[in-house]
Amino acid sequence: MRSLMLTITEQKVIRGFVFALFITIIFISQASAFDPEQGIQVEFLASANGLPAGETMDLAVIFRVPPDYHITSLETGLFFVTFEPVEGLTFAEPEYPQASDWEGDEVYGGRVIVRSAVTADHSLQTGAVTISVTAGYQVCAETGSQQCFFPVEKTLSLAVDIITAGGYTEPINSEIFGSELTEVEPAIEPEETDLAGSLENALAKGSFLALLLVFVGGILTSFTPCVYPIIPITVSYIGARSEGQKLRGFILSLFFVLGLAVMYSSLGVIAALTGGVFGGLTQHPAVYAIMIVLFIVLGASMMGAFDIQLPASLQGKLQSGKRKGVVGAILMGMASGLIAAPCVGPVLVALLSWVAQTGSVIIGFVLLFTFSLGMGMLFIVIGTFAGAITALPQAGGWMEGVKHVFGWLLWATAVYFAGVILPDNVTIFIWAAFLSLLGIFIGAFRPSPEEVSWNWMLRKWVGILAVTAGIFFFVFGLTETVGWQVSGGSSTSQVEQLEPGWIVNDVEGAFTRAALEGKPVLMDFYADWCVACVELDHNTYNQPEFLSRSEKFINLKLDFTSQNDWTRQMTKDYDVKGMPTVIFFTPDGKEVKRFVGFKNAAGVASIMDQVLAIAK
Predict the structure, then answer these.
(1) Are 237 and 329 contacting, i.e. CB atoms less than 8 angstroms apart?
(2) Roughly what angle, to the nearest 10 degrees, separates helices 361-391 and 322-340?
(3) CA separation for the pair 302, 407 (Å, rounded)
(4) Of 7, 201, 233, 351, whose Cβ has the fewest other Cβ atoms within 10 Å?
(5) Which pTM does this prediction carry?
(6) What digits encode the pLDDT tens for the residues 63-78?
(7) Residue pair 227/382 in contact by the 8 Å Cβ criterion
(8) CA-based R_g, the chain, Å
(9) 46 bridge partner residues
(10) What DSSP string describes 468-510?
């Protein structure tokens, strides 16, 4: 019973941890509420850069309503546009767009353009005048509780130069005034149902669902290859200090995950607030090289080549009392967070981009902390039972078998990271060698014993399967390297060459060509060390849905593989927070859409259709 008791210090820390989680949930529920004033963007635009005396100029007030929300009808009197009187100017009655139907009510959603015009008197003197307009609206949610928010009124101003009668003015904002663009933007169809897309939408709407999606995203991230090396650390450290008790293993696991979350979320917030490209450090080839060496060394230790132990004096300090176990678990969790740092999936990139846009340290830390807790659920389960595992009898070959499994997992992770920084034709041979050696180790060529057991048969067939896979990878890599063709089909290299003609790093040239040809611009921020960037090239940009539309775009790729003054300036100019980032522009250079992380061909094609409709 003594081993189940917690010290007073541990009890205080646990109570503080629970209280912090309670405050976190309350805070995020308040922070995630939709703000009708900030959530609806309103613009006031003119059709020309000046107004000659005696002539008329078009005006437009634009409301941008996010998906799953709408502005109530004109009948309520809460949706209106009113111009402030200006001596010498006459305003036309505002023209509202056609409403759409939602459950029997006339509402306005998407991009809502209210048009008007202003006429200057012949006697009006030249000079600058200010036109002010009051835009009122009420927003209602179409999902969840379907609540309607309090009415909002915004006052916008526009400086207009009055010039002499008959003077020349240059048209501006042609995308609003120079086309027959539908005034109410059609509802945006779902691009794809992946977790990253759902998270972006939930964050944009301030939905409480975002907290759950962040947590689920963390759980899914915990199953990525670069998290596997933390498993043996968890088992060895927590298992040795839990004294065979599940309760104590659970408590230590909580503090292990707490340390991981503090480290990981702190690094994430710093990366977001500094505006740097998240992953530019943790995914740099030099960092991958260090991780590869580390995993090879740790794997060799697991295989029995040598033992990695702390100095005896430090071991004594860590093992002298249960209080040290809690502190040590937190420190080990923080160290493990560095190992997990390269696991930057699209969910985390979307999350960090949103945090950077809000500029809130508290909200950013809370969301990233929640993500880290989700990522730590796996280690809570492992740590809880780690004590029971280490409490089992030490005799028997099964314990060595467990260590060997972890050793091969560590080596497989090293091969995985090598594939990120090495060419594909080299990586495939490394995988071939790895699988062949794994099969031999498992027992592909082990002679049969006098009494054949099911264990021997299982190891034999798994080993043969691994060796066969290794031979297949070797032959396939040889065909790719030598250039042999397989009859009846095309090689993978030929498929990968099916991609648009990229303009690389020539930003000015791409936008000049876009203006001349009247085509929108697709700008792709890429780096060789960015896993999701490579996935876009191999799984999206070579697909028919994308290629058929790419001919209508100017395709610009910015290579950020090497960091320099130019890449840092581009990062600042285009507000890039993570890679991959893909931005879409109209032919005149105005941004209309962007996404971060990986998207499949159907998702990107849906965005391209929207951009083409706007750019008409």
Answers:
(1) yes
(2) 120
(3) 5
(4) 7
(5) 0.43
(6) 999 888 899 988 888 8
(7) no
(8) 30
(9) 59
(10) HHHHHHHHHHHHHHHT---TTS--HHHHHT-S--PEES-HHHH
Q: Do domains 36-177 and 498-615 have the same CATH topology?
A: no
- The sign of the torsion formed by the CA atoms of 382, 386, 389, 395 equals positive
Mark 324-335 as b/e (b = at least 16 C-beta within 10 Å).
ebbebbbebbbe
Cα 158 to Cα 176: distance, rounded to the nearest angstrom: 16
Amino acid identity, residue 42? V
What is 498-615's CATH topology? Glutaredoxin (3.40.30)
The residue type at 175 = E
pLDDT digits (tens, 9 = 90+) for 536-580: 888 888 888 889 898 899 999 998 877 788 888 888 888 876 677
| Count of Cβ atoms closer than 10 Å to residue 391 Cβ | 15
Provide the CATH number for the domain formed by 36-177 in this structure: 2.60.40.1250
Supply the DSSP symbol for 74. G
| 219 or 537, higher pLDDT | 537
Domain boundaries, given as residue ranges, for the chain: 36-177, 208-421, 498-615
The single-letter code of the amino acid at 46 is: A
Q: What sign has the CA pseudo-torsion 539, 542, 547, 552? A: positive
Q: What is the phi-psi region of residue 113: left when phi exceeds 0, alpha when psi lies from -120 to 50, beta otherwise?
A: beta
